[in-house]
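With this grant's support, we have settled on a layout for protein records. One resulting record is reproduced below.
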Amino acid sequence: MRERPPSRPQSRVQRPEAKRFERPRKPPLSVQTTTLWEYPSQHYGNQMQGDSRYVGATPSYVIWNLIQRYTEEGDLVIDPMCGSGTTLDVANDTGRNARGFDVAPFREDIEQADARKLPVESASADLVFIDPPYGDHIDYSNDPRCIGKISAYDPKFYREMEKVIRECARMLRPGGHLGLYVCDFYAKKKGFAPVGFALFDLIARVLTPVDTIAVVRHNKSLEMGNHHKAAVEQNFFLRGFNYLFIAQKQ
């Protein structure tokens, strides 16, 4: 009987283990030098600036960059719509004086006031930073004065924001800077609302534009496959960046 040749040992193919998504480690803070800004975290360092639980909290590195470029230690920074207090925390980290206001203060060191009329002396601020609402999709407070209750498709939103921008200009000293951080808005039934362009036009009426920055968004929804699937199937775009408008008072 003919013998069969010995069978070759079967090699086992090692399949690589699926890696979980990991956000890149935070790099050291540095002053941004292009008009495209990106940082892989809402906060810098080992502490939080502001509060990540606050819906729509401002990335603290955005404020840090403005403070580093346009202020010196001891200068006054104002935030008329202070939210969770990010601006106050960054100003404290960098040795600046700061006052934050909101119609619905999130914490004790934020003063209650309407951004359209603030208890701040004219021509006293070196930097005013504002991160306004850009649609009525988030319920910020029950205060009827809240501009966040006005739709971005309603002309009233822009009339009220013009009052805010003019108040920012009033508070700035000559040579002082405004930073306004905002995003456009899209709703399936109403379409695109170019909030950024509209607010830039309002800024340019009272201040001198310095530059326009695109800040990459790291919103958790941008990591969800179903959102991208819907954007393809329904032929719309997810918001991938925020505007940062910088202007100066002459």
The radius of gyration is 23 Å. The beta strands are 36-37, 76-79, 97-102, 110-112, 125-130, 172-182, 185-187, 191-193, 208-216, 241-248.
